[in-house]
Amino acid sequence: MSSLNDTLHRVTQRVIEKSKGSRGRYLDLIQREADNQPDRNQVSCSNLAHAYAGALEDQKALMAQRGPNIGIVSAYNDMLSAHQPYGRYPERLKIYAREIGATAQVAGATPAMCDGVTQGESGMELSLFSRDVIALSTGVALSHAMYDGALMLGICDKIVPGLLIGALRFGHLPAIFVPSGPMPSGISNKQKQATRQLYAEGKATRAQLLESELGSYHSPGTCTFYGTANSNQMMMEMMGLHIPGSAFVQPGTQLRQALDRAAVHRVAEIGIGGDDYRPIGHCVDEKAIINAAVGLLATGGSTNHAIHIPAMARAAGVQLDWTDLSDLSSVVPLLASVYPNGSGDVNHFHTAGGMGYVIRELLDAGLAHQDVMTVGDSDLSRYGEEPGLDGETLTWRDVGPSGDDTMLRPASDPFQKDGGMRLVEGNLGRATFKTSAVSEDRYTVEAPCRVFEHQADVTAAFKAGELDCDVVVVVRHQGPRANGMPELHSLTPPLAVLQERGYKVALVTDGRMSGASGKVPAAIHCTPEALGGGPLAKLRDGDMVKLCAKTGALSTTADLSTRDAVADPAGDTGFGRELFTMFRTNADGAEQGGSAMLAMAGL
Asked: From which domain of life does this come (predicted)?
């Protein structure tokens, strides 16, 4: 490993300094919780009876306290392809626990919604705040104080951040994240994208579009494009919260089962009272959070994590903002080109070397912190290898050179010299610009704007030919407090069509675009949001807007100081949206993580 990059060291020290007070309070909290962890010999027999009554064959072992009891928090449902494999996990994990004299119980379940299903629909307005609900559900699951460690079963967009936030508030417990892996590759991403654009132009039927989509999303496992779900798995590797190399091993394989088994055995080894105590609150420190950010930048991961990383960090008492991300992006090279940034998907990425290759390259270049406490049996260096089987024994080996230099490149010869995200700011606020999928000749767009309050209105204007010009499309009142900050992914195809027609096109919004924002330049997560008088609320059709990733500009020449803000359109009800009024009302800004729960808790 090389000496640490100067900028990485400087940003890390800045985050440590900013976090002194909050991190100190957090460490005090989890120490108190560890000290107060109930000795089950002193717990009421009535309490224990309630906890053991349903344990069946594990009941005698629990009564005798023969070994650690592991809580399983599962986000299983069989509507999400990524979570469908978890249906049979509890019975397998319990068997693995018995092998080492431990027990396991399903502590609780969390909701798990799919942004792919709710994309462009009313349910998407619940998506961001489902992260808070998942964190709260995790807290409820672990509140029984019957566990010596936890296994977190979840993969997708808000689910892993929610599970991690919840687990961190029980930071005295060890916790390991257990992914289920990606589905096999389907039709080529190029073919899928072409059909989507043909449909946007009215040149393909709905039946043809559905057939194409089913050719891509076709079986159990994570969606194979590199969006938020797979970026989650990348981050768990970078933070050392997986059994090393677990992220992208497909469901149902012998290696997948060996990694799951190792997770159960390992969480039992690192519990309270053991010789290798590794509580998650100590694993997730400032350096681990920086590693997650570095991994995001080095792989061109989902822009949603510009919101999730600050929120996860806050749960551990760590303060990180977009300036920190932008400074890291200036020195972290882009090592991976995975769809939608490239042509191959996460299966191709994994075959080419995957996370083992990325982590090894980053460590060798001094661009990641090796000296972090992981859930594995070493520091982060083991995560720079790849898992395999020697017969039935799980082993790790050197990952070797890139198996495909169109997918993975060394730090000495990256796809880009800087990371995949940049901070843009000016008199329109602060926002995130994902550069890794955008051609450099499109980094700057300066054009009159068209202002919309709903994404459906953009589609209507596109179909009417009103956007056939150089244009900055502004979609406002899409922030956390306005309507829960839905993804606006459905805007990508029409804006891409306009771009292919030769127009200079950009998107500016206080909403989200996820990891699938495509090749259209976009300033997303604008903060302060329009609701409450943010600058986007003062824009009018025809105002000149400049977006530039090179200079970091997000500005207008219009004099906003003389204008009143346009009021937020009346919020919609139905689809349970009214039940989330508390979350919207109390949410903080996107740069802080867009969380009502953390804001109300004073974290």
From this structure: Bacteria
Q: Which of 516, 331, 528 minimizes the C-alpha distance to 411? A: 331
Alpha carbon separation from 39 to 31, 36, 42, 147 (Å, rounded)? 16, 9, 5, 11
Residues 6+ apart with CB under 8 A from 478: 455, 485, 486, 488, 509, 510, 511, 512, 529, 530
Task: Extract the annotated binding site.
Answer: 156, 223
Contact 513, 303 (CB under 8 A): yes
Residues in CB range of 60: below 8 A, 6 or more apart: none
Cβ neighbours around 13 below 10 Å, total: 11
pTM exceeds cut of 0.70: yes
Q: How many residues does the chain have?
A: 603
Q: What is the CATH number of domain 421-569?
A: 3.50.30.80
- Bridge-based pairing state of the strands 544-548 and 444-452: antiparallel
- Measured from the Cβ of residue 559, the count of other Cβ atoms closer than 10 Å reads 10
End-to-end CA distance of the chain: 35
Q: Give tens-digit pLDDT for 512-569.
A: 986 555 689 999 999 999 999 999 999 999 999 999 999 999 999 999 999 999 987 7
DSSP string covering 547-562, please?
A: EETTTTEEEESS-GGG
Angstrom distances, CA of residue 77 to CA of 114, 382, 557: 11, 32, 50
* Segment 85-117, tens digit of pLDDT: 999 999 999 999 999 999 999 999 999 998 888
Alpha-carbon span 283 to 533, nearest angstrom: 40
Residue 517 contacts residue 524 (beta carbons within 8 Å): yes
Q: Where are the domains of the chain?
A: 6-36+67-184+219-398, 421-569
Torsion of CA 128, 133, 134, 138, to 10 degrees: 150
Yes or no: say if 175 and 267 are a contact pair by the CB < 8 Å rule. yes
CA 179, 183, 188, 189 dihedral sign is: negative
